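Chapter summary example: a protein plus acetyl coenzyme *A.
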Amino acid sequence: MTVGEYKPGLEGIPAAQSSISYVDGQKGILEYRGIRIEELAQQSTFLETAYLLIWGILPTREELKQFEDDIRYHRRIKYRIRDMMKCFPETGHPMDALQASAAALGLFYSRRALANPNYIREAVVRLLAKIPTMVAAFQLMRKGNDPVRPRDDLDYAANFLYMLHEREPDPLAAHIFDVCLTLHAEHTINASTFSARVTASTLTDPYAVVASAVGTLAGPLHGGANEEVITMLEEIGSVENVRPWLDTSLERKTKIMGFGHRVYKVKDPRATCLQGLAEQLFEKFGHDKYYDIAIELEKAVEEKLGHKGIYPNVDFYSGLVYRKMGIPEDLFTPVFAIARVAGWLAHWKEQLDENRIYRPTQIYKGEHGNPYIAIEQR
Ligand code: ACO
């Protein structure tokens, strides 16, 4: 076997063949199963998009209704999972709580019957149904409240916001939240999806697949950036301070959170959609001064770093949208995970279709033939 050239971060190295999504980073195009993201954001719903990603076709009206009904039926979590979550420290990060809870689902439901299409469908339904309930439950329990039961009369997005805030959401906010989920549902072989595929390739259960992907998404260079964007905007504090702050950050070689992408060298199309959604929210619920700071920062970063292809990514405007909906900052990444479960499951299923366990090689840079030194002689 010949060993190929080493590329840190596997940049440019294909790690899978996939028909799930497509990105053209030069033109700023993202498609799910060949359909442009802008079209899905305008016309689809998150659950319809999840169906499209996982099964590769748009569902008929009956198929969609059945899928939505199945998910609605499975939204509740077992008391034993809720009790386990109650033992989590309230100071813990909700992504860690989500990773542990997703893995715990495997204790109850894992049968590893991967060749059985019903098993795959049941796991898809359970994960899509229960992950939002677990995110909302941890949020309420860490505040000392009991989690609220999911409401069967509310759709997917509205029910999550209801469970989180213990009141029915405004219909515009619920609609915008659903669009946010669609925008975050899938994005080719990014770090967490790669993690999901590697885990899937060992033929472990889908709960372990999602738990490993959640752990990967949590990092600040990946999904965790949306949380840091708000901290950054608060630190900047005013439109006047944008340029001095940026100059200092660039002098210190600090990465500007919410900017840059391994694939996009123009503005991420999801950032453009999210910016539009933020504007709709501000129009209805009042302006946010951090939006003005964000707009000025986008202009200033483009002037300074546009030549390197550094533009806003999906995380830049999502935090402003979620904040306006009253979602706490450390839940931004769990909310990202609620959406991305759809993409991870699509990759899980695709990986199983033509599985070969991931086992790349390495370039050994250590020593050979060293003697073992007895402990008393070290
Ligand atoms: N701010 C300032 N400079 C940047 C930024 C940034 N956000 N991103 C990249 N650059 C610069 C680098 O300093 C480097 O410059 P150099 O060639 O002069 O050394 C050049 O652009 C290439 O950057 P890399 O870090 O090598 O690019 P890479 O593809 O490895 O990283 C990443 C992509 C991790 C997203 C990076 O842009 C980053 O750290 N951004 C900030 C964190 C962020 O927003 N993450 C969310 C990404 S979207 C998602 O995961 C959902």
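Key point: The first strand starts at residue 21 and ends at 24.
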